[in-house]
């Protein structure tokens, strides 16, 4: 076994690898960019080396700098994690040439899978089922159009060297093909450096089911059963689970055997994932092999009881696989979701900023948290905005879903916007509960998963009641610290000379101001809101739990107060409010920006679709930005004529920078 390894990655996966290495007594070396000097992975490792600027191409994609750090530190092996250089065959070769073990498959295996087109041809020859399509070298638009017409519609255009949902388009008729082809090629060129595409017949309402495989240098290859990843948004996985609620024992056996066949076809060593698309009738077809550890590997670990990173290290050190196929069993049910700094209501726009508050459920036998940040850290614009992975386990699927809902209810993220409320609605949706979701369901029914637009009455009343109790507790503490703790002026009941006894509470909810007037004290109140009146009795706030009666009916809520926000949760619904002063100055015309198009976040302009003097219409795409590995289309706010274009392709811009100005 190795004495010291370098981890060529960052964030939660680097922290995850460090955890297993430490368990095995292996010293760890981290690398970090200028943006990650204070990151958790750099702090947790035994040693850490700077490797360049904040952009990935200046640091985590610099194989030469990483290998130099490995040499300098005396690391015997490099674990690439996922993303960055994890599937880069040239990097694997360079590490081996430097006398350093690459903890992953051989470069030759990666090259066979590096091209989706070549991989499909190889799998077809090996007898693994594949979807009909075109993988040819001729990439002329005319040939691709002709092949698309031959395959039939709907079909999918895929970047041949892509991954992570980038460079993929669904085309439903011949007239849509060329515009989608051009868009896909441009995205593929920008993301992967090559614009070759492949075409394949699109299976309607498919499931995405993948098989974890492992091989060693002694000729052994096995699978560790499946993970279902059908809950996706724009080809990005949202929820992963094992076992799949769709597979029968016969299907599971057949897919496992096909996955092992695929691994053997490329002499696969170490951890890999064979991804299949599964039709409603149970037919399954090879998609690709991910030649690395997957983000969702914890669900396999929880149902098999195995540490996949430990297996990776042992296999890379030359050991044989520790178990045979017949020794691998599934027990219970595991589900993973990813907590992101993103705004679901703004098209899942990635976010950035300081985590003012980060509250996650405590780890237990049923709950696992894999994270690379802690409260006070900053989610940077340069990398994936993942905050944490939340993984739950229980004896069966209904129990695991209940664990997931309970764990999500305990999550509280203040700072950048997050997808927690979206995930809560996902975990309760009938398509998830019934195990009926397919890869396109979220995109077809996204509105069903969006948070409620209006503040629900019981939650708002609970927030107001909690705020009144908090004010009274604060006033009591102030009185105790004063020279006259029994003064009637210390009672926070709203009574003042010449005024009726009432306290006006003001909150912001999604930009809308809400006011509640409270009369009374000590947990006995009359609340007035929007012309209605509610009698509150027996209100008690203890350790974040509010028990209360509204007009005689009992309720219980969880309440959490942050730096700038107040969260209320009834076990199924969440309400986040921003308490504000009763009187707040708002300048006339605030929010008007109809003449300007601004950058929604920091990023790079990749394409300008209009110029100064052009006449445009409301909703017309004017610019395309790239930020956090996403392309964002920026559209005209109204009809008009462009007076100024303040950014060009290639420019880096800050959030809220004015990019386009329309004539008045």
UniProtKB/TrEMBL annotation:
Gene3D superfamilies in the record: 2.40.50.100, 3.30.700.40, ATP-grasp fold, B domain (3.30.470.20)
Keyword ATP-binding: yes
SMART domains xrefs: Biotin_carb_C, GARS_A
Reactions it catalyzes: N(6)-biotinyl-L-lysyl-[protein] + hydrogencarbonate + ATP = N(6)-carboxybiotinyl-L-lysyl-[protein] + ADP + phosphate + H(+)
Its biological purpose: This protein is a component of the acetyl coenzyme A carboxylase complex; first, biotin carboxylase catalyzes the carboxylation of the carrier protein and then the transcarboxylase transfers the carboxyl group to form malonyl-CoA.
Keywords, alphabetical: ATP-binding, Biotin, Ligase, Nucleotide-binding
Lipoyl-binding domain residues: 585-663
InterPro entries: ATP-grasp (IPR011761), BC-like_N (IPR005481), Biotin_BS (IPR001882), Biotin_carboxylase_complex (IPR050856), Biotin_carboxylation_dom (IPR011764), Biotin_COase_C (IPR005482), Biotin_lipoyl (IPR000089), CPAse_ATP-bd (IPR005479)
Named cofactor requirement(s): biotin
Organism superkingdom: Bacteria
Biological pathway: Lipid metabolism; malonyl-CoA biosynthesis; malonyl-CoA from acetyl-CoA: step 1/1
The protein's assembly and partners: Acetyl-CoA carboxylase is a heterohexamer of biotin carboxyl carrier protein, biotin carboxylase and the two subunits of carboxyl transferase in a 2:2 complex.
Biotin carboxylation domain segment(s): 1-447
PROSITE patterns, sorted: ATP_GRASP, BC, BIOTIN, BIOTINYL_LIPOYL, CPSASE_1, CPSASE_2
UniProt-recorded name of the protein: Biotin carboxylase
Sequence ranges assigned to domain ATP-grasp in this UniProt record: 120-317
GO terms assigned for molecular function: ATP binding; biotin carboxylase activity; metal ion binding
Pfam families named among the record's database cross-references: Biotin_carb_C, Biotin_carb_N, Biotin_lipoyl, BT_MCC_alpha, CPSase_L_D2
Taxonomic classification: Bacteria, Pseudomonadati, Pseudomonadota, Gammaproteobacteria, Lysobacterales
Keyword GTP-binding: no
């Amino acid at each position: 076994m190795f004495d010291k390894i370098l981890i060529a990655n960052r964030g939660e996966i680097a922290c995850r690898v460090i955890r297993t290495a430490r368990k095995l007594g292996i010293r760890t070396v981290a690398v970090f960019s200028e943006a990650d000097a204070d990151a958790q992975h750099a702090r947790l490792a035994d040693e850490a080396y700077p490797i360049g600027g904040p952009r990935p191409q200046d640091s985590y994609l610099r194989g030469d700098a990483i290998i130099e750090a490995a040499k300098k530190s005396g690391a015997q092996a490099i674990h690439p994690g996922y993303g960055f250089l994890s599937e880069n065959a040239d990097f694997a070769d360079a590490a081996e040439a430097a006398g350093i073990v690459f903890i992953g498959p051989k470069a030759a295996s990666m090259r066979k899978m590096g091209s989706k087109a070549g991989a499909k041809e190889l799998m077809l020859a090996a007898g693994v089922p594949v979807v009909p399509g075109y993988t040819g070298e001729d990439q002329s638009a005319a040939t691709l159009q002709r092949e698309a017409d031959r395959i039939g519609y709907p079909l999918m255009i895929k970047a041949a060297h892509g991954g992570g949902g980038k460079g993929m388009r669904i085309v439903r008729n011949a007239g849509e093909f060329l515009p989608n082809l051009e868009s896909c090629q441009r995205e593929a060129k920008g993301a992967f450096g090559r614009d070759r595409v492949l075409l394949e017949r699109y299976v309607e309402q498919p499931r995405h089911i993948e098989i974890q495989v492992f091989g060693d240098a002694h000729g052994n290859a096995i699978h560790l059963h499946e993970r279902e990843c059908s809950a996706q948004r724009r080809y990005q996985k949202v929820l992963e689970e094992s076992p799949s609620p769709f597979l029968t024992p016969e299907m599971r056996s057949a897919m496992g055997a096909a996955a092992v066949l695929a691994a053997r076809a490329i002499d696969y060593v170490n951890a890999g994932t064979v991804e299949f698309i599964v039709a409603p009738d149970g037919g399954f077809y090879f998609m690709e092999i991910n030649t690395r550890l997957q983000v969702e590997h914890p669900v396999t670990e929880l149902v098999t009881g195995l540490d996949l990173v430990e297996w990776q290290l042992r296999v890379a050190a030359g050991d044989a696989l520790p178990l045979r196929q017949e020794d691998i069993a599934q027990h219970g049910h595991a589900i993973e979701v990813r907590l992101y700094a993103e705004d679901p209501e703004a098209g899942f726009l990635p976010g950035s900023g300081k985590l003012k508050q980060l509250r996650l459920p405590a780890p237990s036998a049923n709950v696992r948290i894999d994270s690379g940040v802690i409260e006070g850290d900053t989610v940077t614009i340069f990398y994936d905005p993942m905050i944490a992975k939340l993984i739950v386990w229980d004896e069966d699927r209904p129990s695991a879903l209940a664990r997931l809902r309970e764990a999500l209810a305990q999550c509280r993220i203040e700072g950048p916007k997050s997808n927690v409320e979206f995930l809560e609605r996902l975990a309760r949706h009938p398509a998830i509960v019934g195990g009926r979701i397919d890869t396109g369901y979220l995109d077809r029914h996204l509105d069903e998963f969006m948070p409620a637009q209006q503040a629900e009455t019981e939650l708002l009343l609970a927030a107001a009641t909690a705020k009144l109790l908090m004010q009274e507790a604060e006033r009591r503490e102030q009185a105790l610290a004063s020279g006259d703790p029994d003064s009637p002026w210390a009672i926070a009941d709203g009574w003042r000379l010449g005024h009726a006894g009432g306290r006006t509470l003001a909150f912001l909810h999604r930009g809308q101001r809400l006011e509640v007037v409270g009369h009374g004290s000590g947990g006995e109140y009359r609340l007035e809101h929007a012309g209605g009146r509610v009698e509150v009795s027996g209100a008690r706030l203890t350790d974040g739990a509010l028990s209360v009666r509204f007009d005689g009916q009992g309720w219980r809520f969880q309440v959490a107060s942050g730096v700038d926000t107040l969260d209320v949760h009834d076990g199924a619904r969440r309400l986040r409010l921003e308490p504000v002063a009763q009187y707040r100055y708002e300048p006339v015309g605030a929010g008007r920006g109809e003449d300007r198009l601004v950058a929604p976040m920091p990023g790079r302009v990749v394409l300008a679709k209009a110029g100064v003097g052009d006449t445009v219409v409301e909703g017309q795409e004017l610019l395309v930005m790239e930020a956090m590995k996403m392309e964002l289309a920026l559209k005209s706010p109204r009809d008009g004529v462009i007076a100024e274009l303040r950014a060009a392709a290639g420019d880096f811009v800050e959030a809220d920078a004015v990019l386009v100005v329309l004539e008045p």
